[in-house]
Every structure is written in C-alpha cells, then in structure tokens.
Amino acid sequence: MSSSTGTTLSAAEALVRLKEGNERFIAGTAQFPTVQAEVLADLAKGQQPYATILACSDSRVPPELVFDAGFGELFIVRVAGNVLSPEVMGSLQYAGRHLRTPLFVVLGHTKCGGVAAAIDTKLNGTRQLSRIQILVDCILPGLAELDTQLSPEAMLEQAVEANVRWSMRQIRETPEGREGRAEGVMKLVGAVYDIKTGRVRFLEDDP
Length: 207
Fold this sequence. Notes:
Elements: H1 11-27, H2 37-43, E1 51-55, H3 63-66, E2 74-78, H4 86-99, E3 103-109, H5 113-124, H6 130-139, H7 152-172, H8 175-183, E4 187-193, E5 200-202
C-alpha cells in the first residue's frame, strides 16, 4: 500500500463530487471512461483518493459506478452489511492516516440481506451459519430502537438507516474519529443507495 500527502479537495468538495457523480449515474450520462495507459502509469506512482467509502458487498451496489468515479478517486472497503470489524477499522485507519482522505462515507442500501437477517434474528431468534451470524451480530446493536410495529418493508428501511448510523457511531468513537472531528480535518457522512432507482440519499447528521 502506498502513502500519500492526500487529495487537494476539502471534505465539502469531495461530497459535492460524489453527489454530482450520482446525478450523472441516475441521468444515464455517466462518464465511465476507458482508462488510458498513461493514467494507469501515473496511478502506479501513488494514490490520492478524495473519499473513503465503507459499503456493502452486494453486487448491485458498486460505488465507483454509483458515483461515476474513475480509477484512483475512491478508497473503498466492502463487507456484507457495511459492518465494522478490526480488519475494516484497519483499512479505515490507513485511509485516514496515510491517504488523508477528508471525507468518509458509510454507504448502506435498500433491501440489504444482512440487515434483513439481523431483523429475523432480533424478532424470531433465527440463527445463520456461524460466520454469517458474526456479521448479523455486528448489526444487531444498531437495531435496538427498531419499531417492530412497522410493516416488514418499512421496518427494513428503518433498519438499513439505523445500521448505517450504528457504523458511523462506532467510527466516531475511535481515537482517530474523535481527533479528526475535533480538528475539523475529517467529515463522516451516512448514505443509503436505492437499488431500484440508483439514487443515493445522504443522511442528515445525527444530533
């Protein structure tokens, strides 16, 4: 892995770029350029991504395409349910310390199977295969205030957002998260991708 002095974009500029890319994706005007040999050669010297994204592994949610981003622009960590683990935290720490990305995004998505499995465990005590259950157990704490009186569809929608906020909370409570926010050098944003429309909805900040 290569170190970097970081992107020249601010967190606010990085967030605008993500939003503009998602608008191009939705409008069908995404750039998706063929990468030229000279671009690859330049990237081989180092990387300066403008955003780090923790996303789900779901094949329907490819962040580079969703945000119409090119090679070297996004540092992406993907794991089912966009959950936190020591390995994921290590990747995020690397992005913050060495790549110095100013913007971190936790990207959930509608109809997430991992979140649905967590709801099933919470309501019915259903157990998954051992290592899948580890993922589910990472999601469950974020569903503590889930409204079980909602319809299944509404409950899943609420749970997806709650899971994003739960991952954000864990990131904020790390030493790097507290330090970055205090110094104003890191912005953390939550978002939910709608797999039906392609639109990314950025969440309002927690109180």
